[in-house]
Amino acid sequence: MADVVVTGRGIVTSIGETPDAFFDALLHGTSGIADGIGACVNFDPEPAMSAKEARRSDRYTQLGVKAAMAAAAEAGLPGAADPARTGVVLGTGVGGLETLERECRNWIEEGDRGVSPHFVPMMMPNAAAGTVAMKLGIHGPGFSVASACATVASGASRATMSTVRLSGRLSKGTQTRESCGKLKPRAETPATT
Question: What is the count of structural domains for the chain?
Answer without folding.
Answer: 1
